[in-house]
Amino acid sequence: MHHFFVDPDYITESQVRITGDDVKHITKSLRLGSGDEISVADGEGRKYIVKIVETGNDLVIGEIEKEFKSKVEPEVKITLLQGLPKSKKMDLIVEKCTELGIDTVIPAETKRSVVKLKPSKAKRRQKRWQRKAEAAAKQSQRARIPTIGQLMNLSNLSEIAGDYDLILIPWEEESTKSLKTSLKSVDDIDKVLIIIGPEGGLAVEEVEAAKELGAKPVSLGPRILRTETAGLTTLSLVLYELGDLGGQ
Predict the structure, then answer these.
(1) In this predicted structure, what is the pLDDT of residue 243?
(2) What is the CA radius of gyration of the chain?
(3) What whole-number distance in Å separates Cα of residue 241 and Cα of residue 231?
(4) How far apart are the C-alpha atoms of 205 and 243, rounded to whole Å?
(5) To which H or E segment does residue 96 belong?
(6) What's the mean pLDDT when you consider all of the chain?
């Protein structure tokens, strides 16, 4: 069943009104019409099974057949602070992290970042990645669309570190501390921040500065993972250990 996001202001007790680009997608690309069913999420945790009853050039109206609280969102909110990678790797990271259940992705410049974005280009990239997140959220039938944050510099980590119960830094020079042990060291975890460096990894001084803010360097095993693999792997392991993705 095709899935769409609709602002709660366009959802009543009995109807859903769809506007914008989704109208063309529903009527032209998917060729859906009266009587067809779609899935709708309000972005705030509610999902709906909707039967289309009217279509127009700029509006689709559907009757709500079933409303329920979505169970697809992880109970723990996880943010990925991702060092800017080369080429289009960030597209892949945003898409796959969205499928897995990420809450927020924040692109970051670090000491070893090769990619440098001027403010105007960073804003355009942020919008592009937000669209990627929305498309992936529709495909994976998420109840909400992950947020793509503004580009920040890792040197400003102190501005957000206090928002998280646990900060993890997968680091190739950490060989003894496991991710599982770090997760068990915190009793109640509501928000986790994962920090991943760009292709060249994080500088020692960046890891040391993060440790002063409470971050825990962890090992992901004996092999070196690419930057586009490390975040996805860490996210998957955290969700599994905390009971999502089939974990207990």
Answers:
(1) 87
(2) 20
(3) 15
(4) 34
(5) helix 89-100
(6) 94
